[in-house]
């Protein structure tokens, strides 16, 4: 029995004992976030670097910016037809991930490129979102 079958048997026994909902508590630990993301920031800029191997056409990736969040979805496919998978360290499959950003970003100023399996997304802080005190000019009224 290979290690994959052994692990599936083990999980099946745990499911029978604790119930299938037992694993919901551990999803974030057992299932790594895909794609992997590194986020760098400056005072007014954010650089998101997203690891997405196996993309043959950039239109396979859908990315949206929504204020304080970036939504990214697509599919990582590693072509190996005709082979049986015996070890998997590069996570494959569909992904749909929302990434919280350190501050609200402008939706009109975004630079993104795909290079050597990495997506580089350059974002800029929405400085109009800051709530600053504004001086109020008081006019003199009637006496």
Structure, described:
It is elongated and about 90 Å long. The termini are far apart. It has helices at residues 3-18, 27-30; strands at 36-41, 45-51, 62-66, 69-76, 93-100, 105-115, 118-125. The protein has two helices and seven strands. The longest helix is centred in the first third of the chain and has 16 residues, at 3-18. It has 143 residues and is mainly beta.
Spatial strand arrangement across the major sheet? 1-2-7-6
Query: What does the largest sheet look like?
Result: 4 strands, antiparallel
Strands, total number: 7
SSE arrangement, N to C:
HHEEEEEEE
- Mean pLDDT figure: 81
Radius of gyration: 23 Å
> If helices are DSSP runs of H or I spanning 4 or more residues, what is the number of helices?
2
Binned strand content: 35-45%
Poorly predicted regions: none
Q: Report how far apart the termini are.
A: 96 Å
Structural class: mainly beta
Q: Which overall shape is indicated by the principal axes computed on the Cα atoms?
A: elongated
How helical, in percent, are the residues? Answer: 10-25%
Key traits:
three-stranded antiparallel sheet, 37% strand, four-stranded antiparallel sheet, elongated, 143 residues
Helix and strand layout, with pairings?
Layout: H1 3-18, H2 27-30, E1 36-41, E2 45-51, E3 62-66, E4 69-76, E5 93-100, E6 105-115, E7 118-125
Antiparallel strand pairs: 1-2, 2-7, 3-4, 4-5, 6-7
Concise summary:
14% of the residues lie in helices and 37% in strands. It has helices spanning 3-18, 27-30, and strands at residues 36-41, 45-51, 62-66, 69-76, 93-100, 105-115, 118-125.
């Amino acid at each position: 029995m290979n290690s994959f079958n052994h692990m599936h048997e083990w999980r099946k026994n745990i499911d029978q004992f604790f119930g299938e909902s037992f694993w919901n508590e551990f999803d974030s630990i057992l299932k790594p976030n895909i794609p992997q993301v590194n986020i760098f920031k400056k005072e007014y800029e954010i650089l998101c670097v997203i690891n997405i191997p196996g993309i043959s056409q950039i239109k396979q990736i859908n990315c949206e910016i929504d204020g304080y969040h970036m939504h990214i979805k697509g599919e990582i496919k590693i072509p190996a037809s005709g082979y049986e998978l015996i070890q998997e360290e590069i996570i494959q499959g569909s992904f749909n991930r929302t990434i919280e950003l350190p501050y609200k970003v402008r939706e009109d100023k975004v630079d993104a490129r795909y290079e050597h399996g990495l997506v580089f997304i350059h974002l800029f802080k929405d400085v109009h979102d800051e709530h600053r005190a504004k001086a109020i000019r008081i006019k003199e009224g009637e006496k």
